[in-house]
Amino acid sequence: QVRLVESGGGLVQAGGSLRLSCAASGILSDINAMGWYRQAPGKQRELVAAFTRGRTTDYADSVKGRFTISRDNAKSTVYLQMNSLKPEDTAVYYCHLVNYWSAMSVNDYWGQGTQVTVSS
């Protein structure tokens, strides 16, 4: 199976920066997608940024220009550089991975989540 280990969350003042990391271990397909979602209290989980199956990047409108997703394929690790943080970025951030084995065989996994708190 796949295990996702996240790190890098914490408390930061508005305008500050944080970098999240997510390391994947286990059996990964040649074609996979990795990214970050977040969930604030009382809200639904939402996409923050992700590498798609086609290796393009996708960002939520609210983070464009402030957050950057990157990956190190050799380490099976994805990063999320978060700059100019705002109090509304406060949430639990989850790493997500999708293994595409075939058109009919897809598996997805979630990390345990890491708390990001931005104070005003």
How would you describe this protein?
It is a single chain. The chain is elongated and about 45 Å long. It has no helices and eleven strands. The protein starts with a strand and ends with a strand. It has strands spanning 2-7, 10-13, 18-26, 32-39, 46-51, 57-59, 67-72, 77-82, 91-102, 105-110, 114-119. It is mainly beta and 120 residues long.
Shape descriptor reads elongated
Percent in strands: over 45%
Biggest sheet, open or closed, and with what strands and sense? 7 strands, mixed
Report the strand count: 11
Helix coverage percent: under 10%
The ordered H/E elements are: EEEEEEEEEEE
User: What are the low-pLDDT stretches, counting only 5+ consecutive residues below 50?
Assistant: none
Helices, by number, come to 0
| Alpha-beta content class | mainly beta
Cα(first) to Cα(last) distance is 40 Å
C-alpha Rg, in Å? 14 Å
What number is the mean pLDDT?
Answer: 94
SSE blueprint and pairings:
Blueprint: E1 2-7, E2 10-13, E3 18-26, E4 32-39, E5 46-51, E6 57-59, E7 67-72, E8 77-82, E9 91-102, E10 105-110, E11 114-119
Question: Key features?
Answer:
single chain, 120 residues, four-stranded antiparallel sheet, 11 strands
Give a brief rundown of this model.
The protein is mainly beta. The chain has no helices and 11 strands. 28% of the residues are buried.
